[in-house]
Fold this protein.
Amino acid sequence: MAVPTTPTAPLPPAAVELASRIEAQFPLVQAVTVYETAATHAVQLAALAETGDMSDLDADSLAHAEELMAGARATLAAAGRLDLIGGV
């Protein structure tokens, strides 16, 4: 059974250009989200380490969070946007 489609009018050139600029920002938004989430998790795990109750799994999670932060930071540094995570 064919799915009916509703034709849409083409977007005006200004809208196409704006959509392209917004779409180009998605990797930066994703990098900021990854960085902030991993940083929060790293802080929580570091606090656990200070209590001496950190398991091997927790230590692996902390290392992974730090790797995620480094990758996200590299993405933002390449784009010249470390300001998005409070970096220079």
Summary: Helices lie at 13-24, 26-51, 56-78.
